[in-house]
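User:
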Amino acid sequence: MMQRISLAIFVCLWMVFTIGIIVKVSDTKNTAVVLENTDARFEPIADSTTHYRLSWGEKVKILSAEDQWMKVKRSDGKSGWIPRENAKW
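Assistant: Predicted structure:
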């Protein structure tokens, strides 16, 4: 009986650990680092209105890509478009 409980606890801990690793790996696949200070815009157009400013080294989540633009989201939830050349993923 004690062996079954120990095995069940081990399996549960192993599952939690495995799921944590999977989530971490999948999260980093969609992450980029800003290579230079840049404006995040409302639309993927150079003349579009600036929504906010991103700083060099800031990490952002990649939401989508269109031509030479990437739609990214900051840690505070704001999203905007930046040129692909201004971030490394």
